[in-house]
Amino acid sequence: MAAISRGGLNTIYALQRDADLQPGSIKKAIKDLVEDGLLERSDGAKRGRRAMALTKSGDRFLSEKWMTSLDPKREMESILRSATVALLMGDIGRSINFLMDAASEREKRQGPQQLRAPSSSARSPIEVHEEMRAVYENQRRVIEASLLRRFADELDKHAGAFTSTNVDRQNLPKKYKS
Prior knowledge:
Blueprint (H helix, E strand, L loop, with lengths): L1 H4 L6 H8 L3 H13 L3 E3 L10 E3 L1 H10 L10 H13 L3 H17 L16 H33 L21
Antiparallel strand pairs: 1-2
Helix pairs in contact: 5-6, 6-7
């Protein structure tokens, strides 16, 4: 909803092209939003591209509920989309803090970083597989945490670039509050 109303992605094609959302995965959601009176679609335009816009109810819903998408335990793509929603809603501070929270969540769940050395007790191939998966998952979390912190730092460094939009300065790090 934020991508439509504040990001200018007001057609299914724009959502596919710029947000990497597949039409098949969002058509039902769009249909449900229309049925719930939160979104309206224009009649067909060129090549069947129908513009979308939030209704007053949709805009109110978005303003009141957007923060419910901020769950730092979700998978990486959801984290990135949620941080972007915070930016679209003009809350760079919350976006930065959310990215840092998501990085911390990944760091909390660290486990083995390498396979155990062979021991006198033999391990079955299934046990080795389980161990390889555990090491892989932990290495993935380390990489994700590092990237999330880097993204938060970059947003923090360039927070001034977002001041021309409707930025909520309340949640910005102290150095950006005026």
